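Question thread 4412

I'm putting together a teaching handout and wanted feedback from people who do this every day. The idea is simple: show students a protein as raw sequence, then show them the structure tokens that encode its fold, then repeat with a second protein so they can compare. Below is the first pair exactly as I plan to print it.
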Amino acid sequence: MAAPKVDSSGESLPEHAAGKWYSVPDLRLRDHCFTVPLDYRDPGTSLKISIFAREVVAVGKEDQSLPCLLFLQGGPGFESPRPTEGSGWILKACEEFRRGTGLSTPLTTSSMLQFKSARDLADYLKHFRADSIVNDAEFFRVRLVPGSGSWTVLGQSYGGFCAVTYLSFAPQGLKQVARQNEKYYKKYPQDIEVVREVTNYLAESEGGGVRLGCI
């Protein structure tokens, strides 16, 4: 399924386009394309880009309401690998091809050469950080997860940093965050004061600040 292109003309693009189910051994896959704002701070007038995601479900469970796991690939700059067979533990998962990678709107040498100045390029690139990746994930969580429910996030390498950013910016989208923190602090109670001191220091620093959910 072809991903929609960047729209700079103001024309309406489909917010969400879902492909048909297809198969690999023991798994059913479905591709999704989402049209999202480049800049979430000004979604009404921002340029639009496409984000590609792949839904992965165990065979025979396509129509079941299952807990969903979001997989965030490492990198930065690498697309998610395509599953080739079932591993036995996946019931339902979603792979996000982060903005700028894979089948999402690409960030390439040729696309960056279109900018007339380093400042213009920097202004564009700042929209490809982890905070925007989290906003993208939230955009399609509410469209893919039944009842706009929460999901579990698994991040590999750079994807792990994105998962921590998710905790900071949108903890309401994550399952069992508070429970896992409670388990950690019960096991390592000496860390409670250390974490509190670090977050207070960051919050009080000039030009700083920190938002950490459920800590």
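The second pair follows. I'd like the answer to focus on this one:
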Amino acid sequence: MSDAEITMLLRQLLEDILSLFPKAGLATLVIFVTLLFVKLLNKAINWLVRTSRLEDYVKRAVPEGTRIPVNSLIIFLADAGVIATSTAIVVRIFVPEYTQAYRDLIAYIYRVGSVVVLSMLTFVIIDALVKSMRLERKTERFFTMLSLLLITLLLIDLAALSSEIKLALAIGIAIGIGLLIGVFSLWAFFGEQIDLLLRTLRSKEIAESRDRDLPVSSED
């Protein structure tokens, strides 16, 4: 490589680096404005929840309350939307619009956001349902396991895996969901009968073991 080519390459590299400075500055400004807006938004949401007494209405519907406070849940959802929007703006700054890479990045950002929001809402709804209906601990565990399996399916779709691996994992989790629902249905509808049958068999085994342990009387 000649000196002229090296000089041209260095000049091109320097021009590319210098062209990134305005974009980096604009992206930094977007991030700063986003953080400031999120802080103000959180204060506004806390004030609105406190003024409207939304927590009191939730406690009336769910006497024991939820594990995640209502204001924290609303703040999380609002912040997730703002952060997703600002991330899309930053991507737009560095990646030209109307390109395949831009569309793929934006779609991936909102897919991740939707999975996070759905996961949070699922656990909150399950917690409220269990506490309001006073379900058994086993039923709560069933709903939690079912939710985790469904969320895992969504995460598999986001993972950078081949289509064959995704298909195999999805089929395995689908089979697990089916077995989980089947076992829970069996326990829910026939739990008492199964428990009674097991107790009867256990009592018979105990009686038979006692009969075997008794000394046999010998006749003279």
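Top answer:
Good format. For the second protein you could add a caption like this: The chain has two domains: 1-134, 136-210. The mean pLDDT is 76.
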